[in-house]
Amino acid sequence: MAPRSAMSCFGLLVIMLAMVSLPIDASQAVNQELSDLFNELWKLDTNRMKPGTDYTISLQGKAGYVSQGNNNARDHASSPLFSSVDENKLKRITTYSRFMKLLDNYERSTGVAEHVTADEVTENNLFLDAVMGTEVMKRVHKYLVSKGFSRSDLRTFKSQLYTIWFRLYHRDRNAGEDSCGFEHVFVGETKFGTEIAGFHNWVQFYLQEKSRNVDYKGYKARDLDMPDTDDHILNLQFSWHGLVKPVSSSFVGASPEFEIALYTTIFLLNTHRSTTVVVNIDQCQLELVVVRHGRSIGTAYPKLLSTAHLVAQLQVRLPLHPLSKVLLSGKTVHATGDTFQRFALAEAEVECVLQIQTFYVALYVGGDMSKARSSWDKRASQERVLTRVTRHSASQARQKEKIQPQDFGPDSHESQQKKLSDSSFPLVQDLSLMSVSGQAASLSWKVSGSEGSSGPNHGGPSSSVTKPTESSPGGSTVKHSPQSGLASVSRLVKLGRCKNVVVVAGAGISTASGIPDFRTPGTGLYANLAKYDIPYPEAVFNIDYFSNDPRPFFSLAKELYPGTHRPNYIHYFIQMLHHKGLLLRMYTQNIDGLEKMCGIPDDKLVEAHGSFATASCHLCYTPFCAQEAKSAIMSDMVPVCTFCEATVKPDIVFFGEDLPEKYFLHSKDFPKADLLIVMGTSLQIEPFASLVNTVRSTVPRLLLNRNAVGPFQKVPLKRGDYMELGDLVDTVRRFAEMLGWHSEIQDLMASRENGTVHTSSFPAISLPSGNDPGRGTTQTKTTGLGRRGASEPSGRLPPKSRPGARGPSSNSSEKSESETDSKSTVSAVSSSPST
Length: 835
Ligand code: CNA
Description:
Blueprint: H1 9-21, H2 32-44, E1 55-57, E2 82-85, H3 87-92, H4 94-102, H5 118-132, H6 135-146, H7 154-166, H8 181-187, E3 189-191, E4 195-197, H9 202-210, E5 214-219, E6 233-240, E7 243-251, H10 256-269, E8 274-281, E9 284-293, E10 296-307, H11 308-317, H12 322-328, H13 337-366, H14 372-379, E11 392-393, H15 394-400, H16 413-421, H17 427-441, E12 465-468, E13 477-480, H18 486-494, E14 501-505, H19 543-548, H20 551-560, H21 569-579, E15 583-588, H22 594-597, E16 605-607, E17 610-617, E18 623-624, H23 626-634, E19 637-639, E20 648-652, H24 666-672, E21 675-679, E22 685-686, H25 688-691, E23 701-705, E24 721-725, H26 728-739, H27 742-752, H28 812-817, E25 828-830
Helix pairs in contact: 2-6, 4-5, 5-7, 6-10, 12-13, 13-14, 16-17, 18-26, 21-27
This protein binds carba-nicotinamide-adenine-dinucleotide.
Carba-nicotinamide-adenine-dinucleotide (CNA) binds near residues 510, 560, 589, 680 and 706.
């Protein structure tokens, strides 16, 4: 791999000065064994194309920053990247010619099921045969056999390769099998019609550029890091069918067998979902990233860290003592007496040099001195799987998340909140302390009774309200002058100012359907998990805990599986927002499927914590038939993965697990929103808690909840923030009435529920919250996991009581539940404690 151009003395000086004050983010250790193997493969790769001879590239300008999903990239390259490629040579070499035949076998968009014809299967097999015939692949096979990761017979090895690269799987869970490792890595895909995923191959790049589907926008690099035309790894920005990939890294000139060999080796050696290996190949230090999708590759790509040439330049430019140079050369030194002393000094110098090098590598790949490599990891890869957003509690998140809140001013409540949450207090304590500091900051606040006694805010500019906070569930409430909530916002909606409404919802919107939320004291699901002897309530969603004992989660799952509960007025209100063409997107944390059931279409809905519609192995992610998983769980059995025999779980996102890819639509939606409605959530789970702070600062935010939560606890409320506290069904109905939508919602609800809707789901008369025996969980006495022994709550409609109503299996979420994976079979064992 070709070395990089010279770094200036000035650059070196800057680095050395910066070294004095900045911490160094030590890079991951180099994997020597794999470096040795991959260097062998590099030498064996006789099919690698030679830059300047077999192909020429024209790098042109450096591309600018483009955010993911923004498809308006400035073009810094008027000509194509590839000026010439010896196509005859490509066609003569079997691995390339067979590789190129595969490139038109796939549906570009995820969410569109792949149909693999018999001819295409033959093409896949011929390609693998060609790859396996190369010296590169033979060497890798030998290595994998020696390590016990493959068998010596070629048929087994080929079948392994086929599964890793060509087995189809679901990338978009709402569709059929729409992807495979080969398609993602070598061909490229588009997600939601808005962005490019994968696409890390230079031959595909060249061919697509030739067909004018790809438009090269420029290379990506730091100022000190200018690429050369003979580099074998490049970071590029380009558009493909009009969508922009802000940065994509690819080998250039490397043969398909070389790439297949590298990624297959890393895949088989590791069982983690995402593996990053640092290796030195030729003169370069690379990170190779491989992400697993069950038994197959989800994505794989290289990242250039540094070149030996650069490090060498750095050493040459430092005025080193001769002894230091001896040490740096790696020679073993035997020294005594004075010589030893001198070597000790030299050693200190060497240590300093090595630190400078480490820092330089960090600077080289990251550019942002204060963040060094970690910032590169986030920005340069542009692979969502890498920029992992996982579900976690707000207390963790406040220390880790970097989502910038809106500007509340230097003395804002948020800044106090941050200071407090940076301490080691548990979250609840933080919030109650916040209330205290809030009181200190605003004398109009005063403690005034319990949550139960607090009345809802009925709006109106001059009304005052007792405002319970989430942090004081048992009691402290405070009084303040609110901004007129429903009235103000409904005026904006009626004036046509809100055409891109984003709704963020949580468990509180489903309590009226008879599903307890998590945190409401006494009725919340967390309060009812004591019998499982779990260390803390959230452990029910802890993947390690589940791995050890799935029974608590399965008991909860039995309560929440779609089928028994029906959507309520609140769901239909959101559906009406869509009906009126105002809903940009609904982001729900709920896993009950009621949003889909009331007719909110898939493309308007982000089920950020997953759903029961699909299931997979919690360990190797092999898909499992959702219906069979449900049957097993409902009969107190544990569904078991047919591949690795670990426990299967519905695809509900647990703490620490990645959120579904669709969640990332937020980066486009929230900046575009012109009204944010937050309903029925305690905003205690990240990343949701921070998400509400990512709308533009001028955008109105309306909280509909029983308590003030998140940024709505600020005193006074930020300009543009509104809240209406009280029972949600009540509040939403009043909101609908102000908008003039109430009877339409009733009609919509009646037609969808086939005229058999439980009347208590309709908020017919405005009773003070707490007096309507049919309304919500405030009146639902719960035992066990929330509902056993309870009277029939509103919104919960047993199928038998609804003659003519569509049975659970006829709704859309149930349909997708019955999708089967032909490779999965149920193998259930009893989940009783004795097993
Ligand atoms: P949470 O922490 O339990 O908070 C719910 C919020 O809603 C609280 O602030 C309540 O005061 C409020 N609330 C409850 N009922 C009403 C009502 N009738 N009127 C007004 N306000 C009300 O739940 P979050 O959604 O904030 O937490 C996210 C968790 C909850 C997600 O991970 C979900 O998976 C999980 N969850 C989902 C469901 C479901 O799918 N229905 C049920 C329980 C928990």
